[in-house]
């Protein structure tokens, strides 16, 4: 049905690496795959295998779960999008980590399920979050630049009329000089 690859960490794995929960749900226990270093696994490629086709209104949704946290949606593949490289922004471990001496420690998991395409949010949630973070960082950079040139008139900030041009020129020059500069905005 599907396969996964963890870039720079694994060979392609098929559905047999996952535990099947029921007809439409599979779980990969990260403890058996990578031990406690699950948070270092930052990406996953999921793909439909050639001989399997989903109905056009269905998707294979991917979720991640840190020990004790809820599942977090990361993205999905469909017939129209048969493969995807998804970021894995592991949630902080949850409050269920208080264990008794007899309890088995919880581990991180990756869940895959067949779901209605219409019920899913954007197919690549982490890409949207990355764009949102980048926009916020660029906006913060602009605000800080404007603030260094502004005056106060009552409850209003007063800035020079060419402030956006000056900021944009400085932003472009810095990006040309330092290729790593823009990568800092995308984190």
UniProtKB/TrEMBL annotation:
Residues 131-183 form the Hikeshi-like C-terminal domain. It comes from the Eukaryota. One of its GO terms (biological process) is protein import into nucleus. Pfam families: Hikeshi-like_C, Hikeshi-like_N. InterPro entries: Hikeshi-like_C (IPR048364), Hikeshi-like_N (IPR008493), OPI10 (IPR031318). Residues 18-120 form the Hikeshi-like N-terminal domain. One of its GO terms (cellular component) is nucleus. GO terms for molecular function: nuclear import signal receptor activity. Belongs to the OPI10 family. PANTHER family: HIKESHI FAMILY MEMBER, PROTEIN HIKESHI. This is Hikeshi-like domain-containing protein. It comes from Prunus persica.
């Amino acid at each position: 049905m599907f396969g996964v690859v963890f870039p720079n960490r694994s060979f392609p794995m098929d559905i047999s690496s996952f535990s099947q929960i029921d007809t439409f749900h599979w779980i990969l226990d990260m403890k058996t795959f990578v031990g406690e270093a699950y948070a270092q696994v930052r990406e996953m490629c999921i793909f439909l295998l050639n001989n399997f086709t989903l109905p056009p209104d269905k998707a294979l949704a991917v979720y991640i779960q840190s020990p004790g946290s809820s599942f977090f949606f990361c993205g999905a593949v469909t017939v129209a999008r048969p493969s995807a490289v998804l970021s894995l922004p592991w949630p902080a471990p949850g409050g269920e980590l208080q264990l008794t001496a007899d309890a088995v420690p919880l581990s991180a998991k990756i869940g895959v399920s067949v779901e209605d395409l219409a019920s899913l949010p954007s197919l690549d949630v982490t890409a949207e979050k990355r764009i949102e973070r980048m926009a916020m960082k660029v906006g913060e950079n602009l605000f800080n630049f404007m603030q260094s040139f502004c005056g106060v008139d009552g409850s209003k900030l007063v800035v020079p009329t060419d402030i956006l041009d000056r900021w944009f020129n400085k932003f472009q020059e810095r990006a040309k000089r330092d290729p790593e500069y823009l990568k800092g905005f995308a984190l």
